[in-house]
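Heat shock protein 70B
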Amino acid sequence: VTATDKGTGKKQDIRITGASTLDKSDVDRMVKEAEKFASEDKKRRESVELKNQAETMVYQTEKQLKEFEGKVTPEIKMKVDSKLADLKSSLTSDDAEAVKAAMNALQQEVMAMGQAMYSQAGPNSGAGAQSGSSRGPDDVIDAEFSDK
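Predicted structure tokens:
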């Protein structure tokens, strides 16, 4: 392969050659070893992915707790903190089932926290609520509309 810098006119070239010095028997042996360890590699990958999901859940939950501070009851916060601590402690072990169980338990408490927070907000606190309006529900507003 040859490359020329159009600005300076300098040329560089490189030659790539096949450097396989392995015998066919070595290649076959390596393929067999890869197949032999494929299931172990798959389990390891799944374990790492589960741990990453759990760590993401811990981060998101801690972020939500800070965001919702003062908006949820101390009882709900205590339950979420407890399940969060359980998940953190399960991450130190290699027990995938314990991590999954802790993640599910934390998810349930986080959902309950969200429901409690939004139920406390009340029906008139949404974005569509009109505040300070003196119109009643039967008042009519006259307007004209033209389509251009």
